[in-house]
Specification:
The chain is an alpha+beta fold. The chain is built from 3 helices and 3 strands; from the N terminus they run αβββαα. The chain has a 3-stranded antiparallel sheet. Strand 2 and strand 3 form a beta hairpin.
Length: about 120
């Protein structure tokens, strides 16, 4: 019989206690990962650093800086520079996200690229 203080009967079962401790550590680690992922920003530059783009982990634009000297490029070149910087920023955010997630998937099916390629 379990008590209200120990609804899962952990006190009487050391293995269940170890599993619950591990589960709680894993949940805390995933909560920390979630917060870190939310804070990821990618940064990219183009036109010799005159155009700087910042994006969130999802690729949403969160910042754009255009140096006044970049205005001399003309609309077509400025557009291309913004798109180039945005692509670099998105890659940068993806790399940062991947490095955060890697420890969680290493040694799992998600981290085994060869195995995943065989299943496609």
């Amino acid at each position: 019989m379990t008590s209200p203080a120990d609804p899962f009967g952990v006190a009487g079962d050391p293995e269940l206690g170890r599993l619950m401790d591990r589960f709680q550590r894993d949940v805390a680690a995933l909560e920390q990962l979630s917060a870190q992922m939310a804070a990821v920003k990618g940064r990219g530059e183009a036109a010799e650093g005159r155009v700087v783009v910042e994006v969130t982990q999802t690729g949403a634009l969160s910042g754009l800086t255009i140096d006044p000297r970049a205005m001399r490029l003309g609309s077509g070149e400025l557009t291309a520079a913004i798109l180039e910087a945005a692509a670099k920023a998105a890659r940068n955010a993806e790399e940062a996200s991947t490095s955060l997630v890697a420890p969680f998937v290493t040694g799992t099916v998600l981290g085994d690229e060869d195995d995943g390629a065989r299943r496609r």
